[in-house]
Amino acid sequence: MQTSERPLSPHLQIYRWQLTMTLSIAHRATGIALSVGTLLLVWWLVAAATGPEAYRVVQEFLGSWLGILLLIGWSLSLFYHLCAGIRHLVWDTGHGFDIKTVYQSGWTVVVASIGLTILAWGAALVQMGRG
Amino acid sequence: MAKTLRSPLGRALGLGSAKEGVEHWWVQRLTAVALVPLSLWFVTSVIALAGADHATVLAWLSRPLVAILMVLLVGTSFYHASLGLQVIIEDYVHHEGAKIAALVLNKLVCFALAVAGIFAVLKIAFGG
């Protein structure tokens, strides 16, 4: 049903995959993940304030495979949302909108967030080995 | 002066059909900027605390600078989260009743969690 001659925006299902749209939705997805993940921070703080027994429970959970999986996801989400968020703040100043720069900053965000996550876990493992 | 159908009050408020101004956008950016150093501080601190026992964590949280930064982190995080989740709800929940319920729930839960986290830090910091 064509009601006007105006161009329609392309539908997601037929639109060729692009880095920019993936990063855009990933910013939202990691934002939701971080909102839920911050529950862990509150649980950790409240448990620490409650006492040694409550703290032991949260530490045990965070040390389990599920806990570690959540922490890896949380750290990757945090670093991604941080890097992509800085990219958004630069856009807010009106800079970096030409196609070439958008792709450069996009791939920089991907590499930086994965690199920072690996770096953070490497540092944490070194710290645990020392402690 | 051009003729307008808007009431004097409507013009003074300066709000169009969106029914709000630039505040949401601005506070989202403000909290984002604050969260850059706060989240980096938090991640490096947690790494330094990896494998630490309960007493060590309590001693760490009792330090005034740590407690202040942690209160700022928890408060700013949930403020930023509530603003972000609000936009997502407004974009994807189309049923008006469900949307309002989700928006209210979002604000209440984020506020309650922020209070819980901040209270826990203060309790530790003031030696409870």
Keyphrases for this structure?
heterodimer; A: 131 residues; mainly alpha; 3 helical TM bundles of succinate and fumarate reductases; 4 helices; 79% helix; 0% strand; elongated; B: 128 residues; 78% helix
What is the radius of gyration of chain A?
20 Å
Largest sheet of chain B: none
Low-pLDDT stretches of chain B: none
Shape of chain B: elongated
Summing up helix and strand content along with how strands pair, one would put the structural category of chain A as: mainly alpha
C-alpha end-to-end distance of chain B: 65 Å
Assign the CATH architecture of chain A: Up-down Bundle
Radius of gyration of chain B: 20 Å
Shape of chain A: elongated
Q: What is the number of helices of chain A? A: 4
Task: List strands and helices in order, with pairings.
The complex is a heterodimer of chains A (131) and B (128).
Chain A: H1 19-50, H2 52-63, H3 65-92, H4 99-130
Chain B: H1 8-13, H2 23-48, H3 54-62, H4 64-92, H5 96-125
What does this structure look like?
The complex is a heterodimer of chains A (131) and B (128). With 131 residues, chain A is mainly α. Helix content of chain A is 79%, strand content 0%. Chain A is built from four helices and no strands. The longest helix of chain A is centred in the N-terminal third of the chain and has 32 residues. Chain B has one domain: Up-down Bundle (3 helical TM bundles of succinate and fumarate reductases), CATH 1.20.1300. The mean pLDDT of chain B is 92.
Summarize the structure.
The complex is a heterodimer of chains A (131) and B (128). Chain A has 131 residues and is mainly α.
